[in-house]
Specification:
The protein is mostly beta strands. It is 0% helix and 54% strand. The strands form 2 sheets. Strands 2, 4, 5, 6, 9, 10 and 11 form a 7-stranded mixed β-sheet that branches. The chain has a 4-stranded antiparallel β-sheet with strand order 1-3-8-7, with no helix packed on it. Strand 5 and strand 6 form a beta hairpin. The radius of gyration is 13 Å and the shape is globular.
Length: 115
């Protein structure tokens, strides 16, 4: 069973930065892809960014130029660097991995952007 544990969320002022971490129980090199999703208050859970096994990343338009997904293969950890945060970035951020044609989710970490 794949386990994903997110950390790094918190309260930050607009314009600030946070780095989220997703630590996996296994080698992330074996995952088909990984990504970050968020669920804003009162809204559905939507994709923010994904990275495939070859390192190609996808970002939703609203975070392009501000968010960066990266991987540390030695630590089996995926990161989401979030800069220039806006109130609309507020939500619960979930790490997702696809392995052996199955999806696995972390427990989520709360990000609140407020002045």
């Amino acid at each position: 069973q794949v386990q994903l544990v997110e950390s790094g969320g918190g309260l930050v002022q607009p314009g600030g930065s946070l780095r989220l971490s997703c630590a996996a129980s296994g080698s992330i090199a074996s995952f088909n892809f990984m990504g970050w999703y968020r669920q804003a208050p009162g809204k559905q859970r939507d994709v923010v960014t994904t990275v495939n096994g070859g390192g190609a990343a996808y970002y939703v338009d609203s975070v392009k130029g501000r968010f960066t997904i990266s991987r540390d293969m030695a630590k089996n950890t995926v990161y989401l660097q979030m800069n220039s945060l806006k109130p609309e970035d507020t939500g619960v951020y979930y790490c997702k991995a696809n392995w052996n044609r199955r999806d696995y989710w972390g427990q989520g970490t709360q990000v609140t952007v407020s002045s």
